């Protein structure tokens, strides 16, 4: 624990107070969102007024998510720990500078936690979903990205990890197609049958998630080849 932190909206109004559980003590005691990029049911995301950083606030979708904070199994914990695990596998994730959990822990809290990470856009990376929607993206780059996605998902699987909710907005890349994985709420499955089932479902969901204009047949085939490892 490194103290209390307040997150404020773009107008400077406090959104919520948290206990910081990760990060250097000299980090600011207050963060202000410069703007809101996302304010959806699962989370609120936007750039910090502190240059080069993104703030992600995780919302409670069900009351019991507040209870999961007590044994460090909330969605906030899962995403931060997931980033650590992927880095151990040699996969790129944004540097996470701090995280915190809601205080006091009761259902009236809008958010169950937050974390602060690198702003990948300011580092020149692009969201893969947007690249695949752009008709000017070279086919060679698209195939490189697909191959790198498959390699990453297979590396996770070999280490008993499944990125169950993976989609193209969960990954950024540079001009060479090298990937950085975000929103890493991964799950470790020690039982082989369960792992195989979840892994196969995640690949099928990715292929079927978008309409026919997103992936070519060749790209779909390469994604489905990921299943050969299971």
From TrEMBL:
The residue ranges of the ABC1 atypical kinase-like domain are: 150-209
The record's annotation in Pfam families points to: ABC1
Give the protein's recorded name.
Answer: ABC1 atypical kinase-like domain-containing protein
Q: Superkingdom of the source?
A: Bacteria
Give the matching InterPro entries: ABC1_dom (IPR004147), Kinase-like_dom_sf (IPR011009)
């Amino acid at each position: 624990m490194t103290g209390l932190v307040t997150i404020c909206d773009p107008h400077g109004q406090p959104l919520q107070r948290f206990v910081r559980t990760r990060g250097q003590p000299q980090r600011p005691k207050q963060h202000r969102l410069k703007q809101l990029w996302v304010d959806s049911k699962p989370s609120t995301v936007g750039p910090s007024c502190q240059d080069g950083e993104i703030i992600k606030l995780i919302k409670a979708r069900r009351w019991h998510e507040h209870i999961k904070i007590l044994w460090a199994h909330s969605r906030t914990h899962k995403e931060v720990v997931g980033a650590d695990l992927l880095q151990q596998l040699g996969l790129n994730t944004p540097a996470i500078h701090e995280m915190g959990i809601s205080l006091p822990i009761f259902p009236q809290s809008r958010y169950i936690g937050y974390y602060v990470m690198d702003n990948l856009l300011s580092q020149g990376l692009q969201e893969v979903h947007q690249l695949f929607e752009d008709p000017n993206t070279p086919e060679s780059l698209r195939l490189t990205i697909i191959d790198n996605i498959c390699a990453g998902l297979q590396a996770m699987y070999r280490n008993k990890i499944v990125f169950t909710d993976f989609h193209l907005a969960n990954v950024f890349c540079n001009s060479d197609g090298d990937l950085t994985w975000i929103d890493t709420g991964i799950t470790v499955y020690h039982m082989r049958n369960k792992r195989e089932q979840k892994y196969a479902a995640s690949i099928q969901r990715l292929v079927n998630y978008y309409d026919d204009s997103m992936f070519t047949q060749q790209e779909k085939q390469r994604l489905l080849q990921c299943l050969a490892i299971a």
